[in-house]
Amino acid sequence: MQTSVILADRQDITRIGIQALLVRLGFDSYPLTIAGDESELESALVQAEAPIVIIDTESMEMSLPQKLLTLYEKQPMTRWILFQDEINDQQLSAFSGMPSVSMILKSNSEEEIRIALKCVFHAERFLCHQISNQLLVRHKREEEFSLTQSETDILRLIALGKTVKEIAAIRFSSTHTIVTHKKNIFRKIGVNSVYEATRYALRVGIIGSDYYI
Questions:
Q1: Which residues of the chain have pLDDT under 50?
Q2: Which of 21, 103, 123, 130 has the greatest CB tally within 10 Å of its CB?
Q3: Three-class DSSP labels, 46-103
Q4: What structural domains and CATH numbers belong to the chain?
């Protein structure tokens, strides 16, 4: 199966730079197609068997992840390189769990971009150091602010209108322990009152709307 390359970017300087790097890395023998818009990209994908797509979604005016996700699902053999000025949180959330989507930034050094291209051409995923750091920070933040099962259960009882004393009795805990849990829960979900906590519990599905008056 012949691997081909699709370069989906409207910036002339990017096209010239990527093509020069492909030559320098010895990948210029791979068939190359230039796509200037979404229609040309879709057409190129239909004709290619197992392409590598180097794409700037902003340049191609495909900033919404759903557009790229649709193409991703239609072309499961495709390897993608998001190569743009920045990868926003929406895109990071959409593509961070997809092993065939690599992410690099146009501000990266030539060396890092060359390593990225080598990895993808050898069927390996590559994330530049900035994206890797973003993911680490995001993961740490999610761990820091996610509720434990005990905290979720206590929040549910708070949202159902139970007092600290009632919750302590239900959970066979001291009121001091419940008060501590309550403070931690409020800090994690960013609220300051039982009303706000109840609204949060309703919004994320910890309690159903039939419980809320």
A1: 213
A2: 103
A3: HHCCCCEEEECCCCCCCCCHHHHHHHHHHCCCCEEEEEECCCCHHHHHHHCCCCCEEE
A4: 5-141 (3.40.50.2300), 147-211 (1.10.10.10)
